[in-house]
């Protein structure tokens, strides 16, 4: 894996921008219970997540073949090697379950989704695994959450909680979805944060 050196911008983040990044780290928009009974908000969160894995459909909470194709791309990060066809087979679900072990799933990697798989999917719908306070003070757990989100936006570095140029470049790619039109240069400025904030507002109203 690529090792990143800490970038200077991380030391100069305002509290407000830090809160924006922490909200991105939680991401997805799902704030309901992790009860293993996914509803529309869970699926909206999942759809928000998989926009980084080729999903271009609506954030509508109604998963279909386009959603599932993106989920299969995500599953490939967990060892799935089958077709990206939108048909969730046992092999597809095994890949998803492998990914979900990082989000609280402790069940069998058997490719048979049940309440435990669904509950972990709800955690994944929050994206990144950060559940700390929104205080604008970014620590390693905040950054690990951000980096996990960014893996779907071109970030290939380690999930180490230490932001560097590759982390910032991926954040700028995410910000483009919120209207950021500046360079992807790894040096975040006010326009980068404005794009991230606009993306959050849009996801909250979807």
What does this structure look like?
With 206 residues, the chain is mostly helical. The protein folds into two domains: 8-27 and 132-205, no CATH class; 40-126, no CATH class. Helices cover 47% and strands 0% of the residues. The chain contains eight helices and no strands. It has helices spanning 15-26, 40-50, 65-75, 90-100, 115-126, 140-150, 165-176, 190-205. α3 crosses α4 (90-100) and α7 (165-176) crosses α8 (190-205). The protein is globular and about 45 Å long. The protein starts with 14 loop residues before the first helix and ends with a helix. The model is unreliable at 1-11, 26-30 and 127-131 (pLDDT under 50).
Considering the chains and any ligands shown, give keywords for the structure.
mainly alpha, 8 helices, 0% strand, 206 residues, disordered N terminus
Strand-helix topology:
Elements: H1 15-26, H2 40-50, H3 65-75, H4 90-100, H5 115-126, H6 140-150, H7 165-176, H8 190-205
Helix pairs in contact: 1-6, 1-8, 2-5, 3-4, 7-8
Could you estimate the helical fraction of the residues in percent?
40-55%
Mean model confidence by pLDDT: 73
Low-confidence regions? 1-11, 26-30, 127-131
Q: Count the DSSP helices.
A: 8
Shape: globular
Number of self-contained structural domains: 2
Strand content: under 5%
Number of strands: 0
Biggest sheet, in brief? none
Query: Rg, please?
Result: 16 Å
The arrangement of helices and strands along the chain is HHHHHHHH
Structural class: mainly alpha
């Amino acid at each position: 894996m690529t090792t990143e050196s800490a970038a200077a911008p991380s030391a100069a983040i305002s509290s407000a921008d830090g809160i924006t990044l922490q909200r991105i780290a939680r991401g997805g928009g799902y704030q309901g219970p992790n009860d293993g009974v996914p509803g529309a908000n869970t699926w909206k969160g999942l759809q928000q997540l998989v926009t980084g894995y080729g999903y271009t459909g609506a954030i509508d909470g109604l998963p279909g073949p386009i959603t599932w194709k993106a989920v299969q791309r995500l599953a490939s990060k967990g060892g799935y090697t089958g077709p990206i066809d939108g048909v969730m087979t046992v092999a597809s679900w095994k890949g998803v379950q492998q990914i979900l072990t990082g989000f609280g799933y402790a069940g069998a990697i058997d490719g048979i989704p049940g309440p435990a798989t669904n509950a972990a999917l709800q955690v994944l719908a929050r994206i990144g695994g950060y559940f700390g306070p929104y205080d604008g003070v970014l620590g390693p757990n905040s950054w690990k959450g951000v980096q996990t989100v960014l893996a779907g936006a071109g970030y290939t570095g380690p999930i180490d909680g230490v932001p560097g140029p590759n982390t910032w470049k991926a954040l700028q790619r995410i910000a483009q979805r919120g209207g950021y039109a500046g360079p992807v240069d790894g040096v975040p400025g006010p326009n980068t944060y404005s794009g991230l904030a606009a993306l959050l507002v849009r996801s909250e109203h979807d």
